Amino acid sequence: MRLALVVAALATLVPAGHIASARAQVAAPAPPAPPQHAIGAITVGGSAEPVLAGALRAAATEGLTAGGAALVPPDSVSRVIAAVPELGTCNTADCHTRLASAVGAARLITIAVDAKGELYALDIALLDGRGRALRRRTDECVACAVPELQERVTAAVRDAIAATSDDTVTLIVDSTPSGAELEVDGAARGTTPWKGELMAGPHQVTATAASGASIAQELFVEASPDQRLTITIPHRSDRRRWGNLTYAAAGVGAATIIGGIVLLSMDGNGTCDAAGSCPRQYETTFGGLLTVTAGLALAGTAGWMYWRDHSGERALTVAPTGSGATMSYGGRF
Predict the structure, then answer these.
(1) 298: closest CA among 261, 251, 244, 240?
(2) For 6-38, how does the pLDDT look when each residue is reduced to its tens digit (9 = 90+)?
(3) What is the DSSP letter of 155?
(4) N or C terminus of the chain with fewer C-beta within 10 Å?
């Protein structure tokens, strides 16, 4: 009874509103900041006038705003482009990465317009901070005036920003040798050559040949149509060719280095007998240095063997070209 009275008394000391407020503060973490967007390179080709770039940049800014995107102040982007003019027209992944880093943008909008007579072809892409296309919108316009081109750019940018997911890309994956079992993101996709659809972005791809040899690669698919790539599967004998010998060489190298250090530490010590007579001193400097050098050489050889065994593991980015796709690799250990 007394315990119940004490609990009731304590409850009256803490207002219910304070308890609810404290719970709300614990249960409601701050939402992540939305990614910052900026207008990147605008390229004007064919018979289109170069001054068109300024009008299209303004139209793209309007599309970002209409789509509800978090926008890097256009003045900040203009200052960077004024300082490095090539970033305003350069349409390579390196240039896109440099511009995004300079203005603090996680996403870039790029625009390419090509005019052939009265036909204007528009290509609007939403890129990540490393210049890789996640979404793409294309359009054509015959005998368009500048205001109509601006309207089309604004609509395309707004549509790309408002999309709830990145583009789905049609892709053909083949292998050498062909007929390998293919897995994408842990799911079996059949044998190569395989044609299917993947969402633009990173994917983990594993190809296993009939011999049992396999290779795993990280694949980044960009938002472009009709891409094709071929994965080369190393022969089984070429993978992990050194195997446990690598670790044996590393162990012997480490033991040899330790032995050399011991020899160096003995240099100058007396060769004393049981009677306490020390007629000579150890001269082990040369032997110690030679032993340490041999140990370092063995350790270096083990490192090279390990690198050779793992050099087939790479990250892969697929980017479109006029006749198919190109692939770029980045090694990893």
Answers:
(1) 251
(2) 344 444 444 544 544 545 455 566 677 889 999
(3) H
(4) N
Residue count (the chain): 333
If you average pLDDT over residues 133-162, what whole number do you get?
Answer: 93
Whole-model pTM over 0.70: no
Q: Considering only CA atoms, which of 255, 236, 207 is closest in space to residue 309?
A: 236
Integer Cα distance of 145 and 133 in angstroms:
28
Cα–Cα distance measured from residue 54 to residue 57, given in angstroms and rounded to the nearest whole number: 5
Q: What is the pLDDT of residues 166-208, one digit of tens each?
A: 999 998 999 999 999 999 999 999 999 999 999 999 999 999 9
Burial of 50 (0-12, 13-18, 19+ CB in 10 A): exposed
The token pair at 295 is 């140990």
Choose which CATH entry (3.40.50.880, 3.40.50.2000, 3.40.50.150, 2.60.40.1120) describes domain 168-237: 2.60.40.1120
